[in-house]
Amino acid sequence: MTTATPKVDCEQFHASLPVSDVIAASDFYRTKLGFWVAFTSGEPPTMAGVNLGNVQMFLELGTPNPKGCSVYFVVGDADELYEFHRANGVEIVVTPEDRPYGIRDYTVRDLYGYHLTFGHRLCGGADEPPLKIERVDVPVRLEKRLAALLHDLAEHKGMSLNSCLEEILLHTNEPLGDGVASPHTKKTLNYIQELKKKHSIDYDSHASYRFVE
């Protein structure tokens, strides 16, 4: 009798890399790569947790074995992080480039030879054929401050107002998930917060139910 595969919701994933010196490794990740050390375990330490944003990776005492091992990080702005790594003298294995899988990324080598790749998602589909459409006029009236933000956002992203609205609408019609329900990178979301201050938007995403003229 075959047992049905259960539906599993995985909340976290931690890569673990064996290193010969936990203190030296965690210090390299902190000072050279921009991680922060969340914890160390043991005296002297036999394990450390290093974080990049909300992602945590373990460095465990052991024999380094970088052959055939690599770790991939999706970040908000790979170019910005690349400049930080380059300025810190981190060994660059592959320079930043737009990849056919829709991500711009680059690869570095850490203290023990492990390859670490950092990339951010590109706008639009990669290597996908043009999609022929027909646009129609839709009478739309928006809250004045929100409309101003939308114009600035479209300009920031190098998009027409039409395309920006379409992108937002398509994403909000998809199931909640990383990179699906939101069309914006974390860097763009931070920029949107600046635009909200610029245009004095003091309401949240549920405010549309309270709008009156």
Task: Name the shape in a single word.
Answer: elongated
Rg computed from alpha carbons, rounded to a whole number of angstroms:
22 Å
Query: Largest sheet at a glance?
Result: 4 strands, mixed
CATH fold annotation of the largest domain = 2,3-Dihydroxybiphenyl 1,2-Dioxygenase, domain 1
Instruction: Please name the CATH architecture of the largest domain.
Output: Roll
User: Low-confidence parts lasting 5 or more residues at pLDDT below 50?
Assistant: none
Number of extended strands: 8
Mean pLDDT: 89
CATH class of the largest domain: Alpha Beta
Q: How many structural units, i.e. domains? A: 2
Along the chain, the helix and strand elements come as: EHEEEEHEEEHHH
How much helical structure, as a percent, in the residues?
25-40%
* CATH superfamily (homologous) name of the largest domain: 2,3-Dihydroxybiphenyl 1,2-Dioxygenase, domain 1
First CA to last CA: what distance?
A: 64 Å
Instruction: Describe the strand arrangement of the main beta sheet, using strand numbers.
Output: 1-4-3-2
What is the overall number of helices? 5
